Amino acid sequence: MHPAPSIIAFTTLSGLGFGLMAWLGLGQIHGQGLVALAFSALALFLAGGGLLASLAHLGQPRRFLKAFSQWRSSWLSREAVLALATMAMFTLYAALWIAGLTLAPLGWLVTGLALATIFCTAMIYAQMRSVPRWRSPTTPTIFLLAALAGGALLSDAIPAAQILLAALLLVQALDWHLGARRLARSGTTLATATGLGALGRLRLFEPPHTGGNYLLLEMVHVVGRNHARKLRAMGLVLAALAPLVFSLVLPVGHLVGGIVLLSHLAGMLILRWLFFAEAEHVVGLYYGKR
Prior knowledge:
Blueprint: H1 5-25, H2 34-55, H3 75-98, H4 104-126, H5 138-154, H6 158-179, H7 182-185, H8 190-194, H9 214-219, H10 225-249, H11 254-277
């Protein structure tokens, strides 16, 4: 799949924002007034910024309201509805929190909505039969772990962040190990893509056409194996391993915390780029590409 910058920004930033909302809803940050205002504004900025970035990927951004209309069958519509509901409930929770009133049941509702939103974002990709690498329980697991780990780092829930970062490291590695085999195990081949399997073993004599088209632009992206390995290592180190080691070895103050957050964010951007770039859409078989 083509790793569009707008979608990478959307999945990374909104995940951080809703992950932070989940921790704030549980009362992780103590304090009122300016402290509550700062953390609430940060959560809304990250979540809202991510959602705005996603508009850049729409063919007709002015028609974004249509994204809310298919919530009965579309994970994208469910995500859009839940995202607005989460932000609305969190805004109410934040306003009361800033004023000095903390309602635990409302906070739990915010946490539940935030987690549901992250899950729906992941299911947009996990339910796609056309991308076997994504169609796995590890996809929503990775999205939830990354969002909660980032939110824990932002809200200073360091012990929880350490556990979540370690889990993210393991699940991401497992997903890469298993994901490489999913296209082959899906049963989709050049023969099934063209419908010519009855003729015998097939190979492409030449591409279907010489010019580019929408399918090649959006659905087909080939990453060199050595390049992917380097990016995988860099992404895991920056997103999970380095923050985990720093938080275990060094006292987490403002300086170390800032370095850990920047490292995690940089690593997640790399991992999300790989998430899209390495995903083999079955339409690529028609063009002789994987």
